[in-house]
């Protein structure tokens, strides 16, 4: 490495530390508009090179005002983790090591670490030790992998080889999915040729849980291959489907149960919460993320399949230039679509090693308590309605209980805008059962009680200003 390349590293290290140290004081969202960022960052394709430390300096200076505060302590708008520093450190090394992690021979180090991490994850999530895991970019791709295994398996069971012959002329598969499933699942269905509209949507209750009676009714008229997609942790309410009852019904019909547990599956790593997920361990596949509750840096997801053969059937292939590894050793590319890819096992290893079983459980439990603390603060304010029971780390809230629904949507939007402008915490709008809401999610390792209290003050102040504005306008009008 040249002196200048080394200087680029030193620059990157100093900038990274300064960014990290500023996380509690910087605004929790980007401050520049698209035009402003473009203005700073745009240049025509460079003809000549530039010195490495200068490249790093320019990049960091140019993007700074466009960075969101996901890695900070008061970012509550999305269900995403906070890129824990130790995971980032492991990820830096991952890049420096430059391992091609598709195969054992491409990186024995990665293959062995992934194999260890598979055991750790199944242990932490209390899932059967026979399951296989593929390391993906996130829960969307993990869902894709799991549903590919599901699709091939339910067709193979009736004598159709979808992996060889595709879906042309194949018997139809019945796919049932809760009405409040995450949009990413519908995308995965689309990629697999199962269609995002060619599904039976099952009615949900007011927390977004699949209604067992509605599922039973849908299954009465359904014979043939069946996949049922359930949810551990609804994106707005954090609710869990009633797995025990669903598992019994679906397995009676010979169906495959897939679980979207992008964040909520991690409730299983916490002794005080695991009962919320009872029965989910009897499913056939699970998709979850590392970059949410486990706090790995982006990107990292896990595709978990009970029947490892079904998993490999859907993903593995052979090529003459990819000599098979030994019997005992797991081939990373047999469990995901990619061959050349990042070694995601290293950051996962580092996070689990840093926090340990007890640290992971304590963090998850703390996030749920902090979510409840915020919901209690907001819920005790006049004119604020928490729309779900806070079982996990998530809730949705509407401001302005009086008046027609459009009015509540308006004041909720106005309150969110004020909170964003105040710049203490970051929240955003979502829709829940036809209502515009503010979603609040506590899921970053960096969030402490004082962050919740400061944020509650800010949100309540914003709501008071908005509601005072509305009463004044009303008085003027009358
Ligand atoms: C985040 C999320 C997804 C999508 O996961 P990615 O990691 O963004 O691909 C799917 N389902 C739920 C419930 C989620 O929270």
From TrEMBL:
Ranges annotated as spanning the membrane: none
Signal peptide range in chain numbering: none
Cofactor(s) needed for function: pyridoxal 5'-phosphate
Entry GO MF terms: carboxy-lyase activity; pyridoxal phosphate binding; transaminase activity
Keyword vocabulary terms for this entry: Aminotransferase, Decarboxylase, Lyase, Pyridoxal phosphate, Transferase
Family per similarity comment: Belongs to the group II decarboxylase family.
Protein name: Aspartate aminotransferase family protein
Naturally occurring in which organism (per UniProt): Cupriavidus lacunae
């Amino acid at each position: 490495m040249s002196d200048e390349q080394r200087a680029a590293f030193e620059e990157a290290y100093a900038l990274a530390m300064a960014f990290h140290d500023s996380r509690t004081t910087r605004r929790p969202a980007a401050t520049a508009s698209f035009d402003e960022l473009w203005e700073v960052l745009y240049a025509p394709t460079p003809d000549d090179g530039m010195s490495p430390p200068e490249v790093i300096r320019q990049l960091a200076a140019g993007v700074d005002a466009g960075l969101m505060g996901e890695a900070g302590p008061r970012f509550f708008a999305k269900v995403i983790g906070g890129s824990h520093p130790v995971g980032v450190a492991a990820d830096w090394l991952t890049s420096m090591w430059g391992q091609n992690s598709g195969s054992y021979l491409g990186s024995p180090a990665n293959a062995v670490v992934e194999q260890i991490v598979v055991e750790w994850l199944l242990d932490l999530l209390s899932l059967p030790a026979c399951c296989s895991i593929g390391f993906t970019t996130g829960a969307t791709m993990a869902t894709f992998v799991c549903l590919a295994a599901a699709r091939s398996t339910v067709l193979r069971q009736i004598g159709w080889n979808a992996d060889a012959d595709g879906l042309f002329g194949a018997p139809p598969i019945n796919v049932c999915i809760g009405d409040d499933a995450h949009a990413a699942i519908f995308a995965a269905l689309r990629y697999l040729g199962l269609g995002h509209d060619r599904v039976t949507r099952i009615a949900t209750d007011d927390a977004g849980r699949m209604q067992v009676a509605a599922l039973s009714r849908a299954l009465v008229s359904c014979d043939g291959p069946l996949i049922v997609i359930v949810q551990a942790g609804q994106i707005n309410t954090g609710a869990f489907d009633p797995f025990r009852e669903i598992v019994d019904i679906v397995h009676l019909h010979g169906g495959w149960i897939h679980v979207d547990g992008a964040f909520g599956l991690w409730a299983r790593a916490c002794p005080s919460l695991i009962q919320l997920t009872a029965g989910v361990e009897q499913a056939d596949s699970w998709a979850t993320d590392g970059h949410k509750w486990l706090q790995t840096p982006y990107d990292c997801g896990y595709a978990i399949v009970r029947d490892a053969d079904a998993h490999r059937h859907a993903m593995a292939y052979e090529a003459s230039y990819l000599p098979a590894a030994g019997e005992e050793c797991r081939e990373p590319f047999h469990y995901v679509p990619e061959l050349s890819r990042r070694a995601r096992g290293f950051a996962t290893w580092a996070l689990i090693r840093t926090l340990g079983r007890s640290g992971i459980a304590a963090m998850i439990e703390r996030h749920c308590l902090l979510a409840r603390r915020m919901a209690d603060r907001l819920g005790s304010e006049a004119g604020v309605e928490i729309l779900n029971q806070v079982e996990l780390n998530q809730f949705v809230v509407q401001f302005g209980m009086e008046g027609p629904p459009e009015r509540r949507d308006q004041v909720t939007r106005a309150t969110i805008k004020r909170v964003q402008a105040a710049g203490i915490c970051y929240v955003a709008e979502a829709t829940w059962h036809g209502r515009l809401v503010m979603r609040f999610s506590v899921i970053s390792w960096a969030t402490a009680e004082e962050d919740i209290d400061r944020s509650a003050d800010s949100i309540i102040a914003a709501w008071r200003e908005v509601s005072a504005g509305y009463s004044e306008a009303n008085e003027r009008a009358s």
